[in-house]
Amino acid sequence: MPTETHLKLRPIQGFFLIYLVLAGLVTADMGILMARNPVVRPWVLGDWLINLQGGLVRRGLTGELVRLLANRTPLSSVSIVIVLQLALYAVLFLSVWKLLRRSEWPFWVAALAFSPATLGFQILDPFGGFRKEILFLAGLGVLLCLLANDSFGDTGVSLYLTLLLAISALSHELVLCYLPYFAAATAITIEDPRRILRVLAAPALIAFAAASFVALHPGSARTADSICTSLASQNGAGLAGICDGAIEHLRDTPAQAREGVRRIAQTPAAYRIYGLRLALALLPVAAGFGQLWQCPRNRRPLLILGAAAAVSAIATIPLFLHAIDWGRWIYIHIVCLALLLFLIDLDRQRLQVIPAIQSGTRGRPLLQLVLAFALLIYAVTWNLPHIVTDSNRNGYLGLFRFAARRSK
């Protein structure tokens, strides 16, 4: 029987629960702060408020739903978006907790759980958080919990996936680049190929329809003007200047988008910054693959996950070529990988494929202390900037400086 050695700190589960609560509170505070920031608001709110008042357009579903709800309730569009953003983060956090609550907490699990590239991303780089990817990241977390419990049935999972992908893809087309992770989640938990096809048939059709819709309705200057006109009457509700970000960029042609990326690509620091941060983010992912591979039963799901990650990485190349938010594209990959690795490890524990792991650090308090210190350094000393110009922060130390400036 294969053996595994890793840091097993049961108390770390309690620390993680405290971390989740604190991260949730800070995320809520940051979300409200970003919604009030006149520079960031056109991005963190504006993208959610793209609606269909200028005709059919990519990303318009959530904004149209928010507009309809704001017109029929006392709530403002800003309040609705903030509540939606924070609710999605709460769902994501809760999903991670459910996947990890029985964990034996090997070092790679702890590193991924506390990684600045996963649950702490929007805290350490609030300018890059609160975007529409949290819609399908939270949805993926719920999907994994449903699959892990096996209580929803194939039809239920298929309907859920169809609805999730329809809403996500019509809210932001970038979800189409990460579809392999959703397929991998299904294939990991369902071994019968015919069942997998039945579950994925309807979601695949939705994905194809969404891709066609995006290609046919990219947006234009007229669309952006119409959306701004529809929001103009709500300026008193915190929407002043809301059109200066994501809505304004509906005017951009692909050539204009590539020009912005070209300027970033000519900055040598960009490759150094993102090369290092990508390596740091992938370290616990690689460690997780290595430890889980020791169990023969895990090799099929790990191969599926590896293939999905490779296909998705290729699919996201257009994102890196057309938008400068490179850190966001990396962040989405890391969160998807982390969630699926947590699922694979949960399956191993539930089926008791390997008996309870005896930690190689038991009875060695000095080694435990060293590993705990290494985890602390890993978790707090770096961050994943969503764009290269925001790379001057250094983990939570930079966050504290940010909070100090805010309090003055």
Integer average pLDDT: 89
Q: How many strand elements?
A: 0
DSSP strand content: under 5%
The structural class is: mainly alpha
Overall 3D shape: globular
Residue share in helix? 55-70%
Largest sheet: none
Query: What is the number of domains?
Result: 1
| Tally of helical runs | 18
What order do the SSEs take from the amino end to the carboxyl end, as H and E? Answer: HHHHHHHHHHHHHHHHHH
| N- and C-termini, Cα separation | 59 Å
Could you name the ranges where pLDDT drops below 50 across 5 or more consecutive residues? 1-9, 353-359
Q: Rg, please?
A: 21 Å
Short structural summary:
The chain has one domain. The chain is 68% helix and 0% strand.
Description of the molecule:
The protein has one domain. It has 18 helices and no strands. The chain has 408 residues and is mainly alpha-helical. It starts with 10 loop residues before the first helix and ends with a helix. Residues 1-9 and 353-359 have low confidence and may be disordered.
